[in-house]
Amino acid sequence: SRLDIGSSAAATTPGSDGSTLGITEATVTETPDPDADTNLMLRIGIKKQSKAVIDHTKVKIQVFFYDTIDDKDIKLTDADVTYEWLTPNHDWADINPEI
């Protein structure tokens, strides 16, 4: 479906590929919006490897959104996309995921 999120074990397990951060969860929720054809919220949990020390000023997280055009072509979306951290002080100082 159009709400599917692709992932692999290596991409979702912190440290399994030598990385210090990993995705712990990725969920999509659709919310009705009279001003938009589709309104989706993507929730991503990011956790550090247990013994890793993270310099949060050097962390860059990029998420790209794509649209399917005419059920065949995939193109980078031209929709208005915003983001918001739900976890205050997202600095990975402890081992809990930052959302």
Characterise this structure.
With 99 residues, the chain is mainly beta. It has one domain. The chain is 4% helix and 27% strand. The chain has a two-stranded antiparallel ribbon with strand order 1-2. Residues 7-12 have low confidence and may be disordered.
Give structural attributes:
two-stranded antiparallel ribbon, 99 residues, mainly beta, 27% strand
Quick description:
The chain has one helix at 9-12; strands at 21-30, 40-48, 66-69, 73-76. It is mainly beta and 99 residues long. A two-stranded antiparallel ribbon has the order 1-2. It has a two-stranded antiparallel sheet with strand order 3-4.
Write the SSE topology.
Blueprint lengths: L8 H4 L8 E10 L9 E9 L17 E4 L3 E4 L23
Antiparallel strand pairs: 1-2, 3-4
Averaged pLDDT, please? Answer: 84
Largest sheet: 2 strands, antiparallel
Oligomer: single chain
Kindly provide the radius of gyration, computed on alpha-carbon positions and rounded to a whole number of angstroms: 16 Å
Query: CA-to-CA gap between the ends?
Result: 24 Å
Helix-strand category: mainly beta
Overall domain count:
1
Q: Hey, roughly how much beta strand do the residues contain?
A: 25-35%
Spell the H/E element sequence: HEEEE
Q: Please mark out the parts with pLDDT under 50 across 5 or more consecutive residues, or reply none.
A: 7-12
Strand order, main sheet: write it out.
Answer: 1-2
Helix content: under 10%
The total count of strands amounts to 4
Give the CA-based shape: elongated
Total of DSSP H or I helical runs spanning 4+ residues:
1
